[in-house]
Amino acid sequence: MSADRPLIAIVVGSGRRERFADYPLEWLREQLADRDDLELSVIDLRDYALPFYDEDVPPAKAPREYHGNAELQRLARAVDAAEGFIVISPEYNHGYPALLKNALDHLFVEFNRKPVAFVGYGNVGGARSIEQLRLVTIELEMAPSRFSVNIFPHSMSRARAGEHPGQVFAEYTAKLQLAVDDLVWWSRALTTARTRAGDGDAS
Ligand SMILES: Cc1cc2nc3c(=O)[nH]c(=O)nc-3n(C[C@H](O)[C@H](O)[C@H](O)COP(=O)(O)O)c2cc1C
Question: Does any ligand 1 atom lie closer than 6 A to the CB of residue 24?
């Protein structure tokens, strides 16, 4: 982790066993593997057995109080370490999944002053869930990017039919590059700013 080569975490926002999210996840991993201006991690929310939110005091008022919840602590460590995020999100009833909201609600300072970009999919490319995520991440004191990747149903069908994600999503590569270039810019800038301000360990 460094301002030069920020650690970008891909957050997988669907936990369904047969989720579509795995296709864009594979594509992102392939596309970003060779970039020498970032490091990559994956925060797969399916791997964190969080309870449905049931804390007495909101995380913004009780920072880093995990009440012995080892799963939450593990998630907090992964989020703390990241300097920028790419959230992969489906659209459920024109919003984003409860799994993702539950994870976002459990933390606060761990997300603060870090940038986030979005990869959405669905009938309108996940645009409605991404717009909601932009509002919610502002409340987490994040810097949501105007750039996003919107994957439409014709690509979803091809990926589900077994075509390689790199081939199926090739039409979105330019959009992804814009989003990631911007994310790296903001990650570097905000890591430097957090370090100067003495925010925690500035991760
Ligand atoms: C509860 C539910 C609601 C959905 N609502 C929408 C919707 O509002 N807009 C949309 O484009 N797709 C909607 N879909 C279809 C999803 O785009 C599709 O199931 C997709 O595969 C979900 O992502 P996932 O498989 O990664 O969980 C919905 C699916 C579910 C399960």
Answer: no
Question: What is the pTM assigned to this prediction?
Answer: 0.97
Residue where the block lists tokens 């330019």: 174
Q: How far is the CA of 160 from the centre of ligand 1 (A)?
A: 14
Residue 123 Cβ contacting ligand 1 at under 6 Å: yes
DSSP 88-129: EE--BTTB--HHHHHHHHH-STTTTT-EEEEEEESTTTTHHH
Beta-bridged to residue 42, according to DSSP, are 10
pLDDT for 120-179, tens place per residue? 999 999 999 999 999 999 999 999 999 999 999 999 999 999 999 999 999 999 999 999
Coil/strand/helix, residue 85: strand
CA 49-51-57 angle, to 5 degrees, is: 130
Query: Which two structure tokens, joined as six digits, stand for 180?
Result: 């990631």
Backbone phi and psi for residue 7, each to the nearest 5 degrees, phi listed first: -85, 115
**Which of 203, 179, 187, 188 is closest to 87 using CA atoms?**
179
